[in-house]
Amino acid sequence: MMKKSLLGALAFGLATSTSAFAQTEIQWWHAMTGANNEVVNRLAEEFNNSQKDYKVVVSYKGQYADTLNAGIAAFRAGNAPHILQVFEVGTATMMGAKGAVKPVYQLMAEAGEKFDPKAYLPAITGYYSTAKGEMLSFPFNSSSMVMWINRDELKKAGVNEIPKTWPDVFAAAKKLKAAGHDTCGFSNAWASWAHIEQFSAWHNVPMATKANGLDGFDTEMKFNSPVHVKHLQNLIDLQKDKTYDYSGRDSKSEGRFTSGECAIFLTSSGFYGNVKANAKFDFTSAPMPYYPDVQGAPQNSIIGGASLWVMGGKSANEYKGVAKFFAFLSDTDRQAKLHQESGYLPITKAAYEKTKASGFYEKNPVLETPLKELTNKEPTENSRGLRFGNMVQIRDVISEEIEAALAGQKPAKDALDAAVSRSNQILRQFERTVR
Amino acid sequence: MEKRAHFSGWTLPLLLILPQMAITVIFFYWPASQAIWQSFLREDAFGLSSEFVGFENYLALFEQPEYYRAMVTTIIFSTLVAFFSLSVALLLATQADKNIRGGHAFKTLLIWPYAVAPAIAGVLWIFMFHPTLGTLARPIRAAGIDWNPMLNGNHAMILLVLSATWKHISYNFLFFLAGLQAIPKSVIEAGAIDGAGPMRRFWTIVFPLLSPTTFFLLVVTVVYVFFETFGIIDAVTGGGPAGQTTTLVYKVYADGRLGGDLGGSAAQSVILMVIVIALTAIQFRYVERKVQY
Fold it and tell me: Smallest Cβ distance to B151: which of A76, A252, A403?
């Protein structure tokens, strides 16, 4: 993969070298593989062909965590790239690194590029903006969590309607189990993202104080509320006979949906490409379920995926090139095309409207599900996004406690209390390093 | 006669040991001293701010119940892996040492797993034993065992011990085989003439003569389990479920690289270093006495 992109970059470099005198290079480090890697390469190529002054050079740096670490190590060694792709949970880490990054709103203003923060979908940019609405990083590939449905199996089990609420899901899972799905009624990937992070936003309950950390690093976890405890207790009860069956903290077990084993499966909307390629049944996606007795639910979902951070300490000319590249990415036609081809969420309102008007969603309703979730209601301070330092570690802590609870080692309340207090320790540790 | 080289002056001997010293200093003493220094600091991931905090990182560590649990997990894990990788390797080596047709092919095949990268070994095992997708998990489930390493800590530990052992057997096998071949046939034949059966010959002649190899492998295996298994753990269980397969070295990796807590991670690696030095010293002090060279 790396070799291919390198070769591509090389070939392109040779092809353009005759016309390209004094071209400024913009380094872009990313973590995209497979079809998404092609998208990155194509975008760079199109941008390089569209003008003569700047050349975007892409490098694949491994998984999200590897790319972030590579960027950090390069910064410490004094040769950071211009653009670094960082996953959403690395946002607080990047924000805390004052001087290491250049906020996007500043970059655009200084470079004099046309930039209207209101043109972007607030559900997406909110995650990457300060409390004042200043955009810090540029959203690139965004997704949200949806419920994937195997229509064929649901029909066979006598479930005629796609479940909307959690009680509906539990009932459907019991029917599925009775109809032969005895190892999995329903399941999910990304345990913490599904049952704590998205769950909190979708039910408009705080995961933490200070607008889930967006308003300050002195945030404290709150996800041991009665609603959270009730939900986890339900999962514990259903795990006993595998009406619900745990599938791990990451996406390694997503194959349980495409293989037909789990007919109801919550995971990222970015799973689309995989499902389309591998599922041999009638599938669709639906919004995440909710508890109807929780007031205000469903609220809106939050995003996942990654954004592009601009690293600090580069020359004004280089920043101008980065700004031009971001303006290029924001173009309505380009965004609409990118969205329809790759399944990424569009980041501008105009691109969303354009795709909607073209009738694309009538043929591909699966791609609109995450957008409907994200824009379901005006985001509240519980659903704008999350910003926790050392979030990668916090996710592991939460997953650990969920696992202990599902294995019957502790009751739901104890597990969530422990997860909250351990997460708070990590938050305090981070708070001290950014002071 | 004394085996001692005589040099006139200091220049040549110093020059000759210089490359080795340079390698040791650059690749061991320097990073180790960096780790010790870092364990007294609190730093953000980017190295923009750093504050000297004394022993605070260490104290914070000993307040974590998870840290003690990781210690217990490490003891269980290393005992199991050391026991199985040594005993199975010895068994295989004694069998391969016999004059059998195609012996060379067997020997070569048995060495192969050592060439497999830890992460790949891990992925291999997870594919075989994945609760629902694994090819070997199906017969286990069919036998009525609710095999689920994703939620059951014991199952995850079994899977981990299997893959870490499998990975290290080749190395031990190779040394045991070499050790066996170095034992003079005449000694064993003498035993046979005196009427000792194969088992007796093994325990009274071969095993004692093999003890230097066994001792060396014990030390190396313990170091392997302590330091080199985090790749397998990362690929197979990620330290889960519920932290039940998080060993000390995996915690160093998880806290430092995934968590960005460099100070705490450095403190852990210093403690780990001390533990391994102590363990090796104990092994040399007490176990080596029973070794006959």
Answer: A403
**B131 pLDDT more than 80:** no
CATH number for the domain including B254? 1.10.3720.10
Taking CB atoms and an 8 Å cutoff, what residues of chain A touch B151? 239, 246, 403, 406-407
Nearest CA of chain B to the CA of A434: how many Å? 7
Residues B148, B154, B155, CA angle at the centre, nearest 5°?
Answer: 35
Asked if the structure places residue B234 within a domain, the reply is yes
What distance in Å separates residue A405's CA from the closest CA in chain B?
Answer: 9
pLDDT above 90 covers a percentage of chain B that reads 19
Number of domains in chain B: 1
Task: Read off the pLDDT of residues A186-212 as tens digits, 9 standing for 90 and up.
Answer: 999 999 999 999 999 999 999 999 999
| Within-domain flag for B43 | no
In a domain? residue B35 = no
Question: CB of B34 within 8 Å of any CB in chain A?
Answer: no
- pTM listed for this prediction: 0.80
Domain, as residue range, for B226: 76-290
Asked if B144 reaches chain A (Cβ–Cβ under 8 Å), the answer is no
> What domains appear along chain A, each with residue ranges and CATH number?
2-142+303-365 (3.40.190.10), 145-302+380-434 (3.40.190.10)
Most confident of A87-91, A218-222, B124-128, B197-201: A218-222
B234 contact A CB<8A: no
What's the 3-state SS for A357-425? Answer: HCCHHHHCHHHHHHHHHHCCCCCCCCCCCCCCCCHHHHHHHHHHHHHHHHCCCCCHHHHHHHHHHHHHH
